[in-house]
Amino acid sequence: MYGEDLDFCRRARSAGHRVAYAAAARVTHRASRRDRAGTRTYLRHMLRNRTLVCLRNYRWKRLYLALDGLVLFPLTATTEFLRSRDKARAVRWIVEARIESLRAGRAILHTGRGRA
After folding, report:
1. What are the helix (H) ranges across 15-39?
2. Which of 32, 33, 44, 73 is deepest in the core (most CB within 10 A)?
3. Cβ–Cβ < 8 Å for 11, 19
4. Is this prediction's pTM over 0.85?
5. Alpha helix stretches (DSSP H) within the chain
């Protein structure tokens, strides 16, 4: 839901497993993205996990962090802020998500491992 599928598939392929698309598979969602958008949980995971998935799985970690800090995170955060009903809370949650992603990202860079 928040990038875990990308992380899982990338790790599975790295471990030698095959990842395939199942066109006939169907998933029923009980809540829409619109219902979740603007909630603390949604903002935290959506903004944080993209950064962590990329840092865990891709080679150019420092370049990604620079791109994320200058372009990707600001664009995503602005979009989610504008969609949010409670702007004051959204700002706080966006800042919390960014701080959390930077801390975890720093740990990934520092340890050189894929997990924070």
Report:
1. 33-36
2. 73
3. no
4. no
5. 4-14, 33-36, 40-57, 61-67, 73-83, 87-111
Amino acid (one-letter) located at 56? R
pLDDT tens series, the chain, 116 aa? 577 888 888 889 989 999 998 999 988 877 655 666 667 788 788 778 888 887 777 778 778 778 887 888 888 788 878 888 788 888 888 888 888 888 888 887 787 655 44
Output the CA–CA distances (angstroms, integers) from residue 103 to 4, 11, 38, 78, in the order listed: 19, 22, 23, 21
Residue 92 tokens read as: 């706080």
**Cβ within 8 Å of residue 16, ≥6 positions away:** none
Return d(Cα 22, Cα 12) in angstroms, integer: 16
Q: Each residue of 89-113: b (16+ CB within 10 Å) or e?
A: ebeebbeebbebbbebbeebeeeee
